[in-house]
Amino acid sequence: VTLRDLSVVTESRELIDRVLTGLFVGGEFTAAAGGHTLVVEDPSNRAPLAEVADANAGDSLNALTAAHEAMSEWAETAPRTRSELLRAAYDRVQALRRQFALLISLEMGKTLADAEAEVSYAAEFLRWYSEEAVRINGRTGQAPGGGGQMLVTKRPVGPCLLITPWNFPLAMVTRKVAPALAAGCTVVVKPSELTPLTALLFADTLRDVGVPTGVVNVVNTTSAGEVVGALMGDGRLRKISFTGSTAVGSHLLQQAAPGVLRTSMELGGNAPFIVLEDADVTAAVEGALVAKIRNGGQSCVGANRFLVHESLAEEFASGLASRFGDLRVGPGQSPGVGLGPLINSDAVDRVEGLVEAARAQGANVLCGGQRGADEGHFYLPTVLTDVPSNTDVVQSEIFGPVAPIVTISDDDHAVSEANSTPFGLVAYVYSQDLRRALSLGNRIETGMFGVNRGLVSDAAAPFGGAKASGLGREGGPEGLAEYLETHYALV
Ligand code: NAD
Questions:
Q1: Each residue of 67-93: pLDDT tens digit?
Q2: Which residue has a Cα nearest atom 35 of ligand 1?
Q3: CA-based end-to-end distance of the chain
Q4: pTM higher than the cut 0.90
Q5: CA of 121 to the centre of ligand 1 (A)
Q6: Which residues of 174-195 are buried (b: 16+ CB within 10 A; e: fewer)?
Q7: Could you tell me if the CB of 398 is within 6 A of ligand 1?
Q8: Tens-place pLDDT, residues 327-367
Q9: Are residues 213 and 48 in contact, defined by beta-carbon separation less than 8 angstroms?
């Protein structure tokens, strides 16, 4: 394992000591009922990083009370004021980018470079929605039958519950909080219990720039089912926005039904990365590296399976294996590290199980194929060739640095393979023929599509999936619409 510089260790300790670790309710950081706490671990060495208040259902209902009480005043706050608060939050997050990046890297494990990129992406939602907050418009029209004028306006939906995963501890929070606040909604955020520190630093940042009391509340908990169940069963809640696994999302949709809650669901993915026979292989290998290794392979839009034309498969596989071989594996805060640990031991067990099962079904391990250093949750970057397309490593979400390569014979074959899983978040294609790439994209059932690139995310674009990958969009005007109710009056 590559060691961290002593200066980074000291900086990390001082940073964590400064993060307020209570529940953030009604503008104050408070202890949980009974003083319960949860422990946050460093995935690179399993050492405890911090203890954070662990909410129960009663604590979370206090947060909803705060959000509910703040709702009407926030909805009536001038859009310009909401806009300026979001812009101030953007500036403040940028000013604190080193602290945010280090905290993300420490609690989640990603490299500092990936964490810096996350801070930029996360901050952009604050800036973009600060610009949108003053452009929430409706429409007017004559009733076709005459005798009346139709006024269509937009209103905030009301208090929202925002549930986020651990893989992007800041960006998944700002991608929801920024449009919600721009729309005039108040929120209760429930971050992942594995990465609560970043959300708490963000809450403190919002308080610092003057976001009013109760508009944003944060509850961390190890009892997600109980806490979320209590909130969703309370009639004051109007909407839930969830990012996480398809299994939990599907369960929450059922829980949302009795109260007819508005829902937005950003769920799991299984992105195909397609390399057609006219692709620039060197560019495809570089794109594959980004699409697979970014975030340690723990991204919903990470390339899950590589569908490579049979004429290029060998060249592509050896190119990727060579790039993987150059990656230094270690704690994300160490100099020169290109791949950090996975989030926890369950994740390593799952990835190892998928690779072993593929091996037993005839896949060839070109590089990696084993765990890394014992002290943390490491798995080595792995390329698998000759992978049958019906193996679990191809059909399920890997969430780790493993690249299974399946060969394809033509474009039709690529499309049928791409559409062969229940997921439909994003697909990537490499081809020198743009028309051909776009026509392929039109036949693949996903919400997003990248041409000759391994990353498509942008705060101004509608991020989201088809099929089991979700409902609704985040980012762009579409992301704001998720927090708005349409109101029509005939006058
Ligand atoms: P997860 O579903 O286990 O957890 C997500 C959140 O839901 C966490 O805050 C967790 O505490 C909470 N949760 C868990 N069980 C719950 C329950 N019964 N009731 C209410 N809340 C509950 O997912 P994860 O492991 O944190 O994240 C990884 C998953 O997220 C992957 O499937 C990934 O594809 C997906 N993801 C999707 C997107 C997207 O935009 N589509 C983005 C990032 C991650």
A1: 999 999 999 999 999 999 999 999 999
A2: 244
A3: 71
A4: yes
A5: 19
A6: bbbbbbbbbbbbbbbbbbbbbb
A7: no
A8: 999 999 999 999 999 999 999 999 999 999 999 999 999 99
A9: no
In the numeric block, the tokens 């790039």 are attached to 323
Cβ(52)–Cβ(196) below 8 Å: yes
Residue nearest to atom 28 of ligand 1 (CA): 244
> How far, in Å, CA of 429 to CA of 95, rounded?
37
Instruction: Please say if the pLDDT value at position 1 is more than 70.
Output: no
Q: Is 163 in the pocket of ligand 1 (CB under 6 A)?
A: yes
Give the span between the Cα atoms of 119 and 129, in whole angstroms: 16
Cβ–ligand 1 distance for 338 under 6 Å, the answer no
The per-residue pLDDT for range 270-297, each reduced to its tens digit, is 999 999 999 999 999 999 999 999 999 9
Binding site membership of 256 for ligand 1 (Cβ less than 6 Å): no
Any catalytic annotation for residue 107? no
Q: What is the dihedral of CA 22, 23, 24, 25, to 10 degrees?
A: -130
Task: Give the type of residue at 107.
Answer: E
